[in-house]
Amino acid sequence: MNRSDPTPPAAQGPDRPAAVRAVALAPTTPPADAVLPPRAPEAPAPGALLGSHYDHCFGCGPQHPQGLRLTVVAGEGLDVTAEFTVRPGHQGGPGLAHGGLLVTAMDETLGSLNWLLHSAAVTGRLETDFVRPVPVDSVLHIHAWITGVHGRKIYSAAEGRIGGPDGPVAIRAQGLFVQVKLEHFTTHGRPEDIKKALDDPDQFKRARAFEVNP
Ligand SMILES: CCCCCCCCCCCCCCCC(=O)SCCNC(=O)CCNC(=O)[C@H](O)C(C)(C)COP(=O)(O)OP(=O)(O)OC[C@H]1O[C@@H](n2cnc3c(N)ncnc32)[C@H](O)[C@@H]1OP(=O)(O)O
Protein backbone atom coordinates (compact mmCIF):
# COMPACT_ATOMS: atom_id res chain seq x y z
CA MET A 1 0.00 0.00 0.00
CA ASN A 2 1.24 3.52 -0.84
CA ARG A 3 2.10 5.40 2.39
CA SER A 4 -0.09 8.31 1.32
CA ASP A 5 -3.03 6.04 0.44
CA PRO A 6 -5.88 7.09 2.79
CA THR A 7 -7.67 3.74 2.33
CA PRO A 8 -7.86 1.96 5.71
CA PRO A 9 -6.28 -1.51 5.86
CA ALA A 10 -8.65 -4.33 5.00
CA ALA A 11 -9.90 -6.54 7.83
CA GLN A 12 -7.56 -9.36 8.88
CA GLY A 13 -8.44 -12.65 7.27
CA PRO A 14 -7.33 -15.53 5.11
CA ASP A 15 -7.64 -13.40 1.94
CA ARG A 16 -5.18 -10.81 3.22
CA PRO A 17 -1.68 -11.14 1.65
CA ALA A 18 0.77 -12.90 4.00
CA ALA A 19 3.18 -9.94 3.87
CA VAL A 20 0.75 -7.65 5.67
CA ARG A 21 -1.28 -10.12 7.74
CA ALA A 22 -0.99 -9.75 11.54
CA VAL A 23 0.25 -12.83 13.39
CA ALA A 24 -1.85 -14.35 16.16
CA LEU A 25 -0.05 -13.99 19.49
CA ALA A 26 -0.95 -15.63 22.78
CA PRO A 27 -2.23 -13.38 25.58
CA THR A 28 0.10 -12.56 28.50
CA THR A 29 -2.81 -12.11 30.90
CA PRO A 30 -3.59 -15.31 32.85
CA PRO A 31 -6.84 -17.17 32.13
CA ALA A 32 -9.59 -17.14 34.77
CA ASP A 33 -8.66 -20.64 36.03
CA ALA A 34 -4.96 -19.84 36.57
CA VAL A 35 -3.71 -20.32 40.13
CA LEU A 36 -1.25 -18.54 42.41
CA PRO A 37 0.78 -21.37 43.98
CA PRO A 38 2.68 -20.98 47.25
CA ARG A 39 6.42 -20.25 47.16
CA ALA A 40 8.34 -23.49 46.71
CA PRO A 41 9.91 -24.87 49.92
CA GLU A 42 13.34 -24.45 48.22
CA ALA A 43 12.66 -20.82 47.24
CA PRO A 44 15.27 -18.32 48.42
CA ALA A 45 14.28 -16.51 51.63
CA PRO A 46 12.74 -13.05 51.29
CA GLY A 47 15.57 -10.52 50.96
CA ALA A 48 18.07 -13.11 49.64
CA LEU A 49 20.24 -12.04 46.72
CA LEU A 50 19.70 -14.48 43.84
CA GLY A 51 22.94 -15.49 42.19
CA SER A 52 23.41 -15.44 38.44
CA HIS A 53 21.96 -18.59 36.82
CA TYR A 54 24.91 -18.60 34.38
CA ASP A 55 28.14 -16.58 34.62
CA HIS A 56 28.08 -15.70 30.88
CA CYS A 57 24.41 -14.68 30.78
CA PHE A 58 23.98 -11.28 29.08
CA GLY A 59 21.35 -10.35 31.67
CA CYS A 60 22.86 -11.43 34.99
CA GLY A 61 26.29 -12.97 34.33
CA PRO A 62 29.20 -11.32 36.16
CA GLN A 63 31.64 -12.51 33.48
CA HIS A 64 29.85 -10.95 30.51
CA PRO A 65 31.88 -7.86 29.51
CA GLN A 66 28.98 -5.77 28.16
CA GLY A 67 26.13 -7.53 29.96
CA LEU A 68 23.53 -5.86 32.15
CA ARG A 69 24.86 -7.44 35.39
CA LEU A 70 21.37 -7.26 36.77
CA THR A 71 21.10 -8.11 40.46
CA VAL A 72 17.90 -9.66 41.80
CA VAL A 73 16.54 -10.00 45.33
CA ALA A 74 13.69 -12.32 46.39
CA GLY A 75 10.55 -10.58 47.60
CA GLU A 76 8.15 -11.57 50.39
CA GLY A 77 5.67 -13.30 48.08
CA LEU A 78 5.79 -14.45 44.48
CA ASP A 79 7.86 -11.39 43.56
CA VAL A 80 11.39 -10.13 43.09
CA THR A 81 13.13 -6.77 42.85
CA ALA A 82 16.06 -6.08 40.54
CA GLU A 83 18.52 -3.30 39.74
CA PHE A 84 20.23 -2.51 36.46
CA THR A 85 22.71 0.37 36.08
CA VAL A 86 22.67 1.71 32.51
CA ARG A 87 26.26 1.99 31.28
CA PRO A 88 27.62 3.73 28.14
CA GLY A 89 27.80 0.35 26.36
CA HIS A 90 24.01 0.09 26.67
CA GLN A 91 23.20 3.19 24.60
CA GLY A 92 20.65 3.32 21.80
CA GLY A 93 20.11 7.07 21.32
CA PRO A 94 22.97 9.27 22.59
CA GLY A 95 23.05 9.12 26.38
CA LEU A 96 19.95 6.89 26.49
CA ALA A 97 19.45 3.18 27.14
CA HIS A 98 18.65 1.06 24.09
CA GLY A 99 15.03 -0.09 24.26
CA GLY A 100 15.95 -3.67 23.43
CA LEU A 101 18.28 -3.80 26.42
CA LEU A 102 15.52 -2.48 28.67
CA VAL A 103 13.37 -5.36 27.40
CA THR A 104 16.25 -7.72 28.20
CA ALA A 105 16.34 -6.36 31.75
CA MET A 106 12.61 -7.02 32.10
CA ASP A 107 12.99 -10.51 30.56
CA GLU A 108 15.82 -11.38 32.94
CA THR A 109 13.92 -10.13 35.99
CA LEU A 110 10.71 -11.93 35.01
CA GLY A 111 12.79 -15.06 34.30
CA SER A 112 14.25 -14.96 37.82
CA LEU A 113 10.76 -15.49 39.24
CA ASN A 114 11.55 -19.13 38.36
CA TRP A 115 13.56 -19.33 41.56
CA LEU A 116 10.43 -18.82 43.66
CA LEU A 117 8.67 -21.78 42.02
CA HIS A 118 11.87 -23.83 41.90
CA SER A 119 11.43 -24.60 38.23
CA ALA A 120 13.15 -23.63 34.99
CA ALA A 121 11.04 -21.73 32.48
CA VAL A 122 11.83 -19.88 29.27
CA THR A 123 10.16 -16.84 27.77
CA GLY A 124 7.35 -17.69 25.37
CA ARG A 125 5.99 -14.19 24.97
CA LEU A 126 6.97 -10.78 26.32
CA GLU A 127 5.11 -7.50 25.91
CA THR A 128 6.50 -4.11 26.91
CA ASP A 129 5.33 -0.51 27.09
CA PHE A 130 8.09 2.10 26.99
CA VAL A 131 6.84 4.98 29.11
CA ARG A 132 9.85 7.33 29.35
CA PRO A 133 13.48 7.31 28.18
CA VAL A 134 16.15 6.01 30.58
CA PRO A 135 19.41 8.02 30.68
CA VAL A 136 22.87 6.45 30.88
CA ASP A 137 24.16 6.24 34.50
CA SER A 138 20.65 5.90 35.89
CA VAL A 139 19.65 2.86 37.90
CA LEU A 140 16.51 1.05 36.76
CA HIS A 141 14.63 -0.45 39.73
CA ILE A 142 12.43 -3.32 38.60
CA HIS A 143 9.66 -5.04 40.54
CA ALA A 144 8.30 -8.27 39.02
CA TRP A 145 5.60 -10.62 40.24
CA ILE A 146 3.78 -13.78 39.18
CA THR A 147 0.18 -13.14 38.12
CA GLY A 148 -0.88 -16.76 37.59
CA VAL A 149 0.18 -20.29 36.73
CA HIS A 150 -1.75 -22.48 34.30
CA GLY A 151 -0.24 -25.90 33.60
CA ARG A 152 3.33 -25.24 32.43
CA LYS A 153 2.60 -21.59 31.71
CA ILE A 154 3.73 -18.93 34.16
CA TYR A 155 2.22 -15.47 33.71
CA SER A 156 4.01 -12.47 35.18
CA ALA A 157 4.21 -8.69 35.14
CA ALA A 158 6.84 -6.07 35.97
CA GLU A 159 7.48 -2.34 36.25
CA GLY A 160 10.82 -0.56 35.92
CA ARG A 161 11.30 2.81 37.65
CA ILE A 162 14.14 5.30 37.30
CA GLY A 163 16.34 6.18 40.27
CA GLY A 164 14.53 4.28 43.03
CA PRO A 165 11.64 1.94 43.84
CA ASP A 166 9.30 4.96 43.96
CA GLY A 167 10.82 6.76 40.96
CA PRO A 168 8.95 7.48 37.74
CA VAL A 169 7.86 4.44 35.72
CA ALA A 170 9.99 4.01 32.57
CA ILE A 171 8.85 0.60 31.35
CA ARG A 172 6.09 -1.96 32.01
CA ALA A 173 6.05 -5.58 30.90
CA GLN A 174 3.90 -8.70 30.91
CA GLY A 175 5.31 -12.12 30.13
CA LEU A 176 4.30 -15.71 29.55
CA PHE A 177 7.01 -18.23 30.46
CA VAL A 178 6.83 -21.96 29.75
CA GLN A 179 8.31 -24.45 32.19
CA VAL A 180 10.96 -26.72 30.65
CA LYS A 181 13.19 -29.57 31.78
CA LEU A 182 16.97 -29.28 31.99
CA GLU A 183 17.08 -31.11 28.63
CA HIS A 184 15.76 -27.95 26.95
CA PHE A 185 19.21 -26.44 27.51
CA THR A 186 21.33 -29.56 27.00
CA THR A 187 19.52 -30.45 23.74
CA HIS A 188 19.53 -27.02 22.12
CA GLY A 189 22.61 -25.26 23.53
CA ARG A 190 25.96 -25.16 21.68
CA PRO A 191 27.67 -28.38 22.81
CA GLU A 192 30.96 -26.80 23.95
CA ASP A 193 29.13 -24.31 26.17
CA ILE A 194 26.91 -27.03 27.64
CA LYS A 195 29.99 -29.15 28.34
CA LYS A 196 31.77 -26.27 30.08
CA ALA A 197 28.67 -25.56 32.18
CA LEU A 198 28.23 -29.23 33.12
CA ASP A 199 31.96 -29.57 33.92
CA ASP A 200 31.73 -26.72 36.42
CA PRO A 201 30.29 -28.28 39.61
CA ASP A 202 28.88 -25.02 40.84
CA GLN A 203 27.14 -24.31 37.53
CA PHE A 204 25.81 -27.84 37.44
CA LYS A 205 24.48 -27.56 40.96
CA ARG A 206 22.51 -24.46 39.98
CA ALA A 207 21.22 -26.14 36.85
CA ARG A 208 20.07 -29.22 38.80
CA ALA A 209 18.39 -26.96 41.32
CA PHE A 210 16.06 -25.86 38.54
CA GLU A 211 15.12 -29.31 37.33
CA VAL A 212 11.36 -29.82 36.93
CA ASN A 213 9.05 -32.61 35.86
CA PRO A 214 6.19 -30.94 34.00
C1 LIG B 1 23.58 -27.10 31.45
C2 LIG B 1 23.15 -25.66 31.29
C3 LIG B 1 22.44 -25.12 32.47
C4 LIG B 1 21.74 -23.82 32.31
C5 LIG B 1 20.71 -23.68 33.39
C6 LIG B 1 19.91 -22.47 33.26
C7 LIG B 1 18.60 -22.60 33.98
C8 LIG B 1 17.72 -21.40 33.89
C9 LIG B 1 17.78 -20.60 32.71
C10 LIG B 1 16.77 -19.54 32.71
C11 LIG B 1 17.11 -18.60 31.53
C12 LIG B 1 16.27 -17.37 31.69
C13 LIG B 1 16.81 -16.30 30.66
C14 LIG B 1 15.74 -15.25 30.55
C15 LIG B 1 14.59 -15.77 29.85
C16 LIG B 1 14.86 -16.09 28.32
O1 LIG B 1 15.27 -15.15 27.66
S1 LIG B 1 14.68 -17.64 27.79
C17 LIG B 1 15.16 -17.51 26.04
C18 LIG B 1 14.06 -17.09 25.10
N1 LIG B 1 13.05 -18.12 24.97
C19 LIG B 1 13.25 -19.21 24.19
O2 LIG B 1 14.29 -19.43 23.62
C20 LIG B 1 12.11 -20.17 24.09
C21 LIG B 1 11.99 -20.73 22.67
N2 LIG B 1 10.76 -21.54 22.57
C22 LIG B 1 10.78 -22.84 22.92
O3 LIG B 1 11.80 -23.41 23.25
C23 LIG B 1 9.46 -23.57 22.90
O4 LIG B 1 8.60 -22.95 21.98
C24 LIG B 1 8.80 -23.57 24.32
C25 LIG B 1 8.53 -22.13 24.81
C26 LIG B 1 9.68 -24.31 25.32
C27 LIG B 1 7.43 -24.26 24.23
O5 LIG B 1 7.60 -25.51 23.59
P1 LIG B 1 7.03 -26.86 24.22
O6 LIG B 1 7.80 -27.22 25.44
O7 LIG B 1 6.97 -27.87 23.13
O8 LIG B 1 5.60 -26.44 24.74
P2 LIG B 1 4.18 -26.67 24.08
O9 LIG B 1 3.72 -28.05 24.46
O10 LIG B 1 4.18 -26.28 22.65
O11 LIG B 1 3.32 -25.57 24.88
C28 LIG B 1 3.03 -25.68 26.24
C29 LIG B 1 2.01 -24.59 26.54
O12 LIG B 1 2.64 -23.30 26.39
C30 LIG B 1 2.01 -22.53 25.35
N3 LIG B 1 3.07 -21.89 24.59
C31 LIG B 1 4.14 -22.47 24.03
N4 LIG B 1 4.92 -21.56 23.42
C32 LIG B 1 4.30 -20.37 23.60
C33 LIG B 1 4.61 -19.05 23.20
N5 LIG B 1 5.69 -18.75 22.51
N6 LIG B 1 3.78 -18.06 23.57
C34 LIG B 1 2.67 -18.33 24.28
N7 LIG B 1 2.33 -19.59 24.70
C35 LIG B 1 3.13 -20.57 24.35
C36 LIG B 1 1.27 -23.54 24.50
O13 LIG B 1 0.17 -22.93 23.84
C37 LIG B 1 0.84 -24.58 25.53
O14 LIG B 1 -0.27 -24.07 26.21
P3 LIG B 1 -1.47 -25.11 26.70
O15 LIG B 1 -1.85 -25.88 25.49
O16 LIG B 1 -0.83 -25.96 27.77
O17 LIG B 1 -2.54 -24.21 27.22
From TrEMBL:
Topology term for the membrane: Peripheral membrane protein
Cellular localization per UniProt: Cell projection, Ruffle membrane; Cytoplasm; Membrane
Reactions that this protein is recorded to catalyse: octanoyl-CoA + H2O = octanoate + CoA + H(+); (5Z,8Z,11Z,14Z)-eicosatetraenoyl-CoA + H2O = (5Z,8Z,11Z,14Z)-eicosatetraenoate + CoA + H(+); (9Z)-octadecenoyl-CoA + H2O = (9Z)-octadecenoate + CoA + H(+); tetradecanoyl-CoA + H2O = tetradecanoate + CoA + H(+)
Domain Thioesterase, chain residue ranges per copy: 95-160
Domain of life: Bacteria
Keyword entries, A-Z: Apoptosis, Cell membrane, Cell projection, Cytoplasm, Fatty acid metabolism, Hydrolase, Lipid metabolism, Membrane, Transit peptide
Family matches, as Pfam families: 4HBT (PF03061)
Annotated EC: 3.1.2.2
InterPro entries: HotDog_dom_sf, THEM4/THEM5_acyl-CoA_thioest, Thioestr_dom
Family: Belongs to the THEM4/THEM5 thioesterase family.
Cited PANTHER family: ACYL-COENZYME A THIOESTERASE THEM4
Protein name: Acyl-coenzyme A thioesterase THEM4
